[in-house]
Amino acid sequence: MTTAVATDVTSGRIGNRLIGLGILTGFFFQIWESGIKGLFLSALQIVFPVIVLFLLFLMRALGAGDIKLFSMIGSIWNLKILCCCIVWSFLTGAVLSLIKLLYQRNLTARLGYFFRYGGRCLRERRILAYRQPSDGKQNTISFSIAILAGFVITMGVMM
User: Fold this and answer.
1) Neighbours of 153 (CB within 10 A)
2) Which of 109, 111, 129 minimizes the C-alpha distance to 120?
3) What is the pTM of this model?
4) pLDDT by residue, tens only, the chain of 159 residues
5) What is the four-CA torsion angle of 57, 69, 13, 98, rounded to 10 degrees?
């Protein structure tokens, strides 16, 4: 997982080979633990983050690599750990985002954009991409950092 975070921070992407290797490892662990039933459980837990987080992907608020990273966690661990990891990751991401907004002194501007965005989505009755074209990377965080932190917190709480 730390390799995924490092590549995300440096390149802005999480490689499919890395995710695939993690998912394959999860399949082997699940089959070893529960037999063929483990394979189906693992598959279900891979699909779960895709379904739950798809709306955030459509909004461009969450990247595909982040969802695949959650799917990798789901392939290895159980659904309870996956759900806790998702919750802790979003809480950590919120704190990291708030710190970044306060540091850059643009919290009120970004909140204003958020409410205008919500109004536009309601008026047009469709999900629009969230990012402003001129944003670049200034107003984003590498969410994989929050996922790693959420995973570590989950392991500390659950184990």
Assistant:
1) 17
2) 129
3) 0.88
4) 889 999 998 988 999 999 999 999 999 999 999 999 999 999 999 999 999 999 999 888 899 999 999 999 999 999 999 999 999 999 999 999 999 989 989 889 888 988 999 999 999 999 888 766 555 567 688 999 999 999 999 999 876
5) 70
What is the number of helices (H) and of strands (E) in the chain?
A: 7, 0
- Number of C-alpha atoms within 13 angstroms, CB side, residue 117? 15
67 neighbors 49 (Cβ within 8 angstroms): yes
Residue 89 · residue 149 · CB < 8 Å: yes
Tokens of 104: 């850059």
Smallest Cα–Cα separation from 42: which of 65, 25, 67? 25
> 142, 143, 139, 146: which is closest to 111 by C-alpha?
139
Return the H-helix or E-strand segment holding 120: helix 107-124
The 10 Å Cβ neighbour count of residue 82 is 23
Amino acid at 10: T
Q: Which long-range contacts (CB under 8 A, 24 or more apart) does 10-13 make?
A: 12/137, 12/142, 13/65
